[in-house]
Amino acid sequence: MQTVRIQTAQNVFIEYQPASIGDRILAALIDYVTLYSYVILVSILLGSMEVNEIWIYIGVLGVPFLFYDLVLEVLLDGQTIGKKARNIKVVKLDGTQPTIGSYLLRWLIRPIDVFFSGAVAILTISINGKGQRLGDLAAGTSVISLNRQVGLAETVMPQVQENYQPLYPQVTSLTDRDVALIKEALHVHKNSESPDYRLLETLANRIKSILQIESTMPPMAFLHTVLKDYSFLTSN
């Protein structure tokens, strides 16, 4: 299966695995179990209260059942209860935050995707290779797995000598996400057949802005130095 490349706000591409068909099916089953459990429990409650008005049943049972996916994906940042359980979520392929319109478009096309017991969605996802059903293709979204397979080169901090002298003590103010982004960018740059030095320059300028420092060091050397400084200062 292909990977999905998501561009961050710092113009760095991070690769994710599309959610597998199995994960998406399991997520859907969990959502259905959640919905049907809700319907059964509320039906019992309304019956015990001797509620007979059909419009109450439609409002209390039908509306949540109909809008479940749309409302939860909007409120839970691209996830439903089932998606949270499988650690998958809806994202925009251009790296921007999915809008209500994106979720709405996916929801409107969902009846076509689930036609023939979901055969249309399964076929589309299998052919597309980017975790996209018809609704995703229309909305420019994909469903990715948040369980990223991270290589050793991306997780281990650079080794520094005990007598190493850090240049930028401000690096301790960086967040784990900032450091992970630097490692990711350097790793992608190193393994790319056609590396884009502008991305490293953009990220280096971003880190300089965060740390409020000035440096004439080349972007790649600067980012490597930041990692070394961070590794030394946070381990001592």
TrEMBL record:
Originating organism: Rhodocytophaga aerolata
Membrane topology per record: Multi-pass membrane protein
Alphabetized InterPro entries for the sequence: RDD
Protein name: RDD family protein
Domain of life of the source: Bacteria
Residue span(s) of domain RDD: 19-140
PANTHER family registered for this protein in UniProt: SLR0254 PROTEIN
Pfam families: RDD
Subcellular location: Membrane
Keywords: Membrane, Transmembrane, Transmembrane helix
Primary location group: membrane
Membrane spanning residue stretches: 25-48, 54-76
